[in-house]
Structures are given as C-alpha cells and as structure tokens.
Model the fold of this input.
Amino acid sequence: PASVVKELMENAIDAQAKNIHVLVTDAGRTCIQVIDDGKGMSETDARLSFERHATSKIHQAVDLFALRTMGFRGEALASIAAVAQVELKTRLETEEVGTRIVVAGSKVETQETISCPIGSSFSVRNLFFNIPARRKFLKPNETEDSNIRVEFERIALVHPDIAFFLHSNDSEVLNLPVSSLRQRIVSVFRKKLNEQLLAVKVDTTMVTISGFIGKPEFSRKRGARQYFFVNRRYMRHPYFHKAVVSAYEQIIPAGEQISYFLYFELEPDTIDVNIHPAKTEIKFENERFIWKILAAAVKESLGKFNVSIDFDMEGLPDIPVFNPQNSIESPKINYGEKFNPFKTSEPEPVYLHSKTTDWKNLYDGLEKPSFNEEEYALYPNEPFIEKGTQHLQLKGRFILTSVKSGLMFIDQHRAHIRILFDRYLKQIQCRQVLNNEDMVNLVDSLFACQTPNRTPDGHTVLSTIREEYIEKLFK
Done:
C-alpha cells in the first residue's frame, strides 16, 4: 500500500499538480485514492498508461541520463493494475469531457467518456485481490498506516509549494497548505521542532546544499528525523550521513543522534537514480567532493548559530574591509635624522681624583650588625606573597582568601605543618628545650589521637622497648 501511494503521488507531482489529496481506507487494503489537479491525460494516454514500459516522461534513451521527473520507467501503473482493481478518471484542461477507465488484473473492463474535473483521480481497490497468498502477508493496519504516512511525509517535505491532504478512514490525518520549507517541516512533525533547527546554505558550481540541521543540545538517543533529498527526490546515503555526524564530533554525546533535513540540487547528468527499484539509492559522480562540501557547510552553520561557542574578540586588531575603489598608497616611513643608536641616555661617570679627608665615613655602619631575613628563610628565592583580610573555608580542608592579584587557596593541613616546622626550627636555633609542663602536654595530646604510634604518612612516632632488652644493654 505504501508503494502505491508513493507512485501515484509522484505521478501527480510530475503532472504539475498544486493540490494532492490522498484517501486511504483500511490501511490501503480496501481502497487507496489519489486526486490531483494537474494537467490530466488525453483518452489515448490514459489507455496507454496501463501498458508496461509506456511513459510520456521520456522521449529518447538520452533522457535517461538527465532525468528531471520523479517517474521514468513506465512500470508503476501497469504493476498496480496487475494486482488490484483500478479506476482512472482524468481530463485535460483543453477538453470539455474526460475519460474513465477501469482495469482489473491487467484487463481493461470499462473505457468511457464522462464529466470530471481537470486533473486525474486514481482509485485502487482490493489490493492483491487475485493473489490471496500475498494479501495474507500484508502487515497489520497500524504498521501499513505508518508506512503510508512515512512515504507521504517524504514527498510532502520536498514540495512545500504543493498542498497535500491525507485522510485515513474518513478522518483527516495531515493538512499541509502551501508554505515555506521551514514551516512545512514544522507542520509535518511538531511545533517544538522550529526552535531546534539551524539553517544550512552553500552554493557551489558543483552542488547547492540547503536545508536545516538540529542544534546540538537537542540530540537524542533514537527517533531523530534524518532526511536527504536530491533534486526533490528522497534518498538514503550512509556516506553523506557520516559527513553530518563528523561535524558533531565532540559536540554531542557518543551514541546520540541529531535531526537534519538537507536538500541537494545538482545537474541530473552527474547522478544515477536508476540503480535501485525503490529509487532511494543514488550514485554521485563527484561523491567525495560533495562529502567535503557537506561537512564544511554543517560545521559553518554550527559555528555561526550555536550560542555555546564563545569567540573572544577582545584585543583583536581592527582589519579594514578591502575596497577595490580606494587607491593603494605605499606606507610612509618616519625617522629622526638626529637619532644615534650608539648614544645612551645614562650620564657619563665622573671620576674624582681628590683625596678624601673624612676617611671615617667610609666605615660607617660596619659596627652595626645587619639582619637579612633571606639568610634565615627556608626558601630564599620565594617571592613575596600577599595576605588577604577576608577568609572562607571550603569543604573543611581549604581556606580561601581574596588578594589584590586574585584568589588564594591555602591547604589547612600543610599550613599547620609549616607553622609547627618553623616553631621547631626556631627552638633549635635558640637552643630551647621543653620544660616538664610542655612535655606532659605534648604526651597527653599525642595519646589523645586515634593512632598515636603512626603519622598520617605512615612513619613511626613512638616505639616500646621491653625491660629485659634494656637490662641486656648493661650486662
């Protein structure tokens, strides 16, 4: 059923229809009707349209290499008429009456002149009525309805200048009036999709690529809308899909998908659509170059419109825009004629040869002991560190303080070790020893710890020697 809908809709598009109505009953088992307001057919063409390999879309073999129509084989109507009961009503704009033809199982049952509107109306009833085994293997109605909608959407997405209407069991499913491409995409799927799309546009001598791609923040695990169209024809192309995915590397999580609707326009003689019965696989003459153009176009759109990318323009030079009308002047060089590179600004030294009478002043300050903190510092070359006034504690381990140059982090544990080390070093330098009270306080504080025998680094703090070992030392 979905293939029947696809072929009949493509015929209506080739007939330059502006309004196409698709009516489906029982998922296409009972009836599929496609009505258009295109050019229509004459009585002779209407009769010949059901013959195999009969088509009015190409006139010579060379036309196969420059296809601009959706159909060209002349097999669709003949194949449909072979397995169903088909009724055709058609009329040309220049004719006052039309033609009605009924074909069942490839046999013409009725051909008559009737009154009907301009265009064509195909009714396909009782699909596979003469092949019960094939009809038995039709999928459930829900699946067939879904397949019909997929084919309907693929054609509607690439023709926003045509109004499409889809009805299923007398209920309207889709109503797509003539609109812009972006509005057509939003109408087919959902309104929320509008805010997720980024425009893509690149025009080269080889190919023109336009359409929309999804924003990185709207990636999903499954269910992404991914469509390629070439010369208004839907296609599947894994190679071009990799070009789009490569542009999103390290932007979206691995394994997630992104939606895109990309339209290719190029010369028909550079592609071959006649390599698969469904016409969904297309061979390109310049496939590798188009891959690079596509990848560059997607990356450019992401760089232009993705708000998460921040370009720091501060401090960049102001590059003027080139104007070919302005005359080009050579740069002027200004220099000082009196400039001497060997002349220094320092005053010349003055040498005094007079004898110094106040010789005692030469020894002033020698009797006073000078004190230099760097001689006693642990790290003499360490630069001066600023000290802040406001302090905050982070996770019970770090102290944050603001200084003039920025923000300072202090490790509490290491700071405490540094303070104790300086105290101990000062006591050694001053040759101070602990009195009895200090020793008692030190031992009490040590045994108040959870592990007094080990340091946090695993070193031994205290060890016990038995009395018999002490006695052995004095024997």
